[in-house]
Design brief:
It contains twelve helices and ten strands. It has a single domain, classed as Alpha-Beta Barrel (TIM Barrel), CATH 3.20.20.70. It is globular and about 50 Å long. Helix 7 runs parallel beside helix 8. It is α/β, with parallel strands linked by helices.
């Protein structure tokens, strides 16, 4: 019998929405991702003070959050896999690996995580990488069902490396919807999905998922544009965001978090959220 994941999910979702700030970028082994994360203890201090709903981390950094005494600190979302598709060059062998193959969620249980997250990579001409991800998810899904741990699946449809180089995603709605549907079929409790190229198409992703969908952020962009686009995606049915570099690489992460929380939890428009940011949160 499957144990319900709802008790842990309730730590993440306030009034149905969630802002998960991702700082799990160390597992990507990509130097450009680390700008702003050099001093992780200070980053976590700043994020706890900013009060997002959740912080996404890997096992080796999770103690910086979970050893804190505050009872109302953000929930821990734990990344439990790693791979090399994020690097600026395409490798001869592409791979995705669970950090603990035999007991994939043991670290998340140890650290009292509210959720675990794994990738579902779809790269052109890389069927073995896709197969590895499917195998990872199947293994993790079984463990999550046993212990009542929510599973967040991150479907990522990527462009051929030669088009723009490096870690670049394909915003084609048809491809995203198809891969999100697969993630749903595999038993995701939460889906972290890329935005569609046209935000007005994102409702199709939500409909395919049938579970809460959080929008993935990607690289740092102009913040006013990010807030406006985020408001449009929320209007299409997204339940929140998983943003990393668009938070921790800004000069005032606390104000960015406040603006995003206003979008997610107060129904603010993009312009209203920008005003929150300009006021410093």
């Amino acid at each position: 019998m499957r144990i319900s994941p709802k008790a842990r999910m309730n730590r993440m979702f306030a009034n149905g929405g969630c802002l998960d700030v991702a700082v799990d970028h160390g597992v990507c082994n990509e130097p450009s991702f680390m700008v702003g994360l050099e001093d992780m203890a200070s980053v976590i201090d700043a994020l706890v003070a900013a009060r997002p709903d959740a912080i996404q981390m890997a096992y080796g950094q999770a103690d910086l959050l979970q050893s804190r005494p505050e009872r109302d600190k953000p929930a821990l979302v734990m990344r439990i896999d790693m791979g090399n598709p994020y690097n600026a060059v395409r490798h001869r062998v592409m791979w995705s690996q669970l950090q603990n193959h035999d007991e994939p969620i043991i670290g998340a249980l140890e650290m009292d995580a509210a959720c675990v997250v794994v990738n579902l990579f779809m790269l052109p001409d890389e069927p073995e990488l896709f197969r590895q991800c499917v195998e990872n998810i199947a293994r993790v899904r079984a463990a999550c069902a046993k212990y009542g741990m929510p599973l967040m699946i991150e479907p990522l449809v990527m462009l051929p490396n030669e088009i723009r180089g490096g870690y670049q995603v394909d915003g084609d709605a048809e491809k995203i919807v198809t891969l999100v549907r697969l993630a749903s079929e595999m038993g995701a409790d939460i889906i972290k999905a890329d935005p569609t190229e046209n935000p007005e198409d994102f409702h199709r992703v939500v409909e395919a998922a049938r579970v809460p969908v959080l929008v993935r952020g990607g690289g740092k962009e102009d913040l006013k544009d990010v807030l406006g686009k985020s408001a449009r995606l929320l209007a299409q049915g997204a339940k929140g965001m998983v943003y990393g570099r668009n938070v921790y690489q800004h000069d005032n992460p606390r104000a960015v978090v406040a603006a995003l929380m206003a979008l997610i939890h107060k129904g603010a428009s993009g312009e209203e959220a920008w005003d929150v940011y300009q006021r410093g949160g």
